[in-house]
Fold this sequence. Notes:
With about 220 residues, the chain is mainly alpha-helical. The protein has one domain (about 5-215). The chain contains eight helices and no strands. The longest helix is centred in the last third of the chain and has 27 residues, at about 135-160.
Amino acid sequence: MYYLxxxxxxxxxxxxxxxxxxxxxxxxxxxxxxxLCFVVFGLSISDxxxxxxxxxxxxxxxCVADVLLNLRxxxxxxxxxxxxVGILVFLSGHIAYLMAVxxxxxxxxxxxxxxLVLTALLMKWIFTKIEAKRAFKIFGIFYIxxxxxxxxxxxxxxxxxxDTFRTIFAAGALLFLISDIVxxxxxxGPEQKFVLRxxxxxxxxxxxxxxxxxxxxxx
Length: 219
């Protein structure tokens, strides 16, 4: 099933092209298919353990959220609501990933404190770069907080017990975080730039592929 990795990236590239051309319906379909690739890949290599099930659940929630985020361009009248629901589904995916790797953590309380501090600093910086309604800001704090905590736990697990699974998972989670930061800056910043959109999506798909790929080395 490794052929799904390049297939995912090709579909993602086609989706970006269609979005650039403002063919939003075609873009949603292609984006959904691209995301479905990393879901099927993850399911095909899952060993059925509780950790694998949580990671594949995170992948599936990410796929659903991907479609919702782009549906805002199709369902323009309900665009903000669809976007918020998509962010909520993504948040659920981050929680699934976090539940998967948290049992490996050796210093959970310390990780939570570090994540709170990093989230506060990061959101303070982000809020100086964007303009958004209060609802989006509140969602953003919880959302970024969850993925920052995921990264702190994943990197902490890697530092204290390095192995291939922890390395690949942590790399995927980090790319996911950077992708989300770029998405927020580009969506709510003063000017939307296509190069940032490409950066956001490229980091996102590589990150999700790495998280799925980490299942190969789960033992």
